[in-house]
Amino acid sequence: MENDHGELVDLYVPRKCAASGRLIEAKDHSSVQIAVCDVDENGKMIPGSTTNIPISGAIRHHGESDDSLNRIAQQMGCMYFSAL
Length: 84
Prior knowledge:
Blueprint: E1 15-16, E2 23-24, E3 32-39, E4 45-55, H1 57-61, H2 65-76
Antiparallel strand pairs: 1-2, 3-4
């Protein structure tokens, strides 16, 4: 929720799982949020610029977090797969 000045006033802002699109609840203690640094065209890290990828505990419990991170990285253009 925002006030009249456009500032966030909520104590808790729920996250959404990047793999499944489900909301990550406050009591989901097995969820993780991975910060991936952004890079410029030369492959150098841009200081202070990261992309956060939240993964819910349900995805981790089923052992799908590695595949999900690979798929998300491919959608972001960070990783490329070649067909054999």
